[in-house]
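Section 3.1: Structural characterization of target chains.
Under the original work plan, the team committed to producing a structural model for every single-chain target entering the pipeline before any wet-lab resources were allocated. The record below documents one such target. The sequence was received from the expression subgroup and is listed exactly as submitted; it comprises 146 residues.
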Amino acid sequence: MLKTILAISGKPGLYKLVSRGNRSLIVETLDASHKRQPAFGTDRIISLADIAMYTDEEEVPLRQVLTNIKEREKGAVVSSIDIKTATKDQLFDFMGEVLPTFDRDRVHASDVKKLIQWYNILIENGITDFAEDLQETEGDNVDNRK
């Protein structure tokens, strides 16, 4: 599911891939308006399935971080932190609970804010099965040649 959920640089929120146009992608906002719009090749578009978080050892896929947040919050939106007023220390404490080995030098407070925003958007729109993507990705690496 995270493969079809997109983040577009310079635009707030998340978008769902609806269709592919001639020289663009047709995306729909993941909010109450469900507004459709084109996203062009000049836009920096990335699938949530392609994002990872820096840790001290290796990068951890975003789907695993989202699953950790879901377990911490018991499937509800993050209500323990107000991202508009949270300090860097509060954000890093939250991140330390979710992903204890995250790299405090390369992960910025703005990254944690964006992560919480994205998680809340996904939960509010009924996208809650992040582990499903983990199984899909593992299945993609199987060599089916005979």
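The chain has a mean pLDDT of 88.
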